[in-house]
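Exercise 7. Given the encoded structure of a 340-residue chain, write a plausible sequence.
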């Protein structure tokens, strides 16, 4: 059985994408042998380990999605992978970044969003940091999407093909949304613009929505995609209930959040008491594309996120991981997929 057939029979990637990607892989190998790894300061031995990893990808069906029905299963996989060749390679890349005067290296990968082989930038911005956090790295130099975002978008688009086209994204001013509407022009996006604004209204062309009080009718979307938003909502329960409400039966909530599988419980870092913001732990802020102040982290999401999702009504919850160097997915990015 050919590689393409194996991959196709497993439903791994669409045939067209696979062919294009396999063609791209030859190009990748040739380019890899040249400038990139030299520029990264990697020696021949390291180059061959990278090529070997590509080869493994090809043999394993080119693109592997690992799906887990419980955090326990995911943790077993994750722990086993920790000392595997892929993580070893990532540590080597991390070392190359640290040792590079610009604290940056470029890798190559097939960007699903741009649909071609692209340089992927890996860097460390802070001098204090001695290790690459791949989740937000390997950003394509053209579409600028990181490992996590490329994977989230690729997976979401695939689900759109299978489960319907009405899609709502919990972002609108981002590179990821721009990439999404190029492929799905009818996709609706929004941002949270602050308190006191009517959900569904436009402010300078940006739609405002409050995740805990969405303006959409019930059962009006097939897919909701949410990229590192849910850790910022004041009530996780209310937000999940709203997302469940707006999904049609069979619809899917596909999201990423910072997730520590080893933490049993989700921890509430902040909340509102009698309308006043209260911090239970030291405030932590993440970057926010519509606010220079950043977004306060209300929740450290733990293993019981499955319970939160089931309580909101979702019937099936999975963690999905991608492992493909050919696609430039470094750091084993993961997402959650919850079915209504
Ligand atoms: Zn790209």
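Solution.
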């Amino acid at each position: 059985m050919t590689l393409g057939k194996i991959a196709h029979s497993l439903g791994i990637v669409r045939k067209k994408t696979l062919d294009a990607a396999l063609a791209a892989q030859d190009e990748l190998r040739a380019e890899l042998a040249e400038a990139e790894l030299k520029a990264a300061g990697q020696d021949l031995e390291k180059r061959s380990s990278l090529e070997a990893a590509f080869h493994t990808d090809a043999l394993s069906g080119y693109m592997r999605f690992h799906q887990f029905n419980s955090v326990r299963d995911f943790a077993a996989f994750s722990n086993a992978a920790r000392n595997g060749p892929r993580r070893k390679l990532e540590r080597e890349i991390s070392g190359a970044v640290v040792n590079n005067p610009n604290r940056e290296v470029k890798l190559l990968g097939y960007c699903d969003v741009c649909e071609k082989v692209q340089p992927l930038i890996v860097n460390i911005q802070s001098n204090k940091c001695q290790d690459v956090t791949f989740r937000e790295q390997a950003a394509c130099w053209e579409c600028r999407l990181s490992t996590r975002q490329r994977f989230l978008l690729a997976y979401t688009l695939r689900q759109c093909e299978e489960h319907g086209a009405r899609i709502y994204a919990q972002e609108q001013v981002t590179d990821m949304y721009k990439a999404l509407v190029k492929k799905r022009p009818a996709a609706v996006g929004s941002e949270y613009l602050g308190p006191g604004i009517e959900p569904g209204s436009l402010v300078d062309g940006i739609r405002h929505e409050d995740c805990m009080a969405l303006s959409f009718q019930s059962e009006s979307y097939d897919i909701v995609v949410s990229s590192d938003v849910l850790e910022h909502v004041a009530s996780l329960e209310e937000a999940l209930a709203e997302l469940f409400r707006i999904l049609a039966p069979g619809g899917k909530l596909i999201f990423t959040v910072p997730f520590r599988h080893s933490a049993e419980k989700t921890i509430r870092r902040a909340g509102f008491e009698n309308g006043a913001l209260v911090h239970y732990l030291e405030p932590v802020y993440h970057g926010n594309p519509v606010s220079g102040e950043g977004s306060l982290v209300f929740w450290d999401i733990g293993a019981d996120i499955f319970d939160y999702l089931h309580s909101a009504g979702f019937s099936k919850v999975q963690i999905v991981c991608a492992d493909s160097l050919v696609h430039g997915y470094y750091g084993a990015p993961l997402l959650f997929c919850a079915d209504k």
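Remark. The chain has two domains: 3-63+85-145, 149-339. Students should compare their own answers with the one above.
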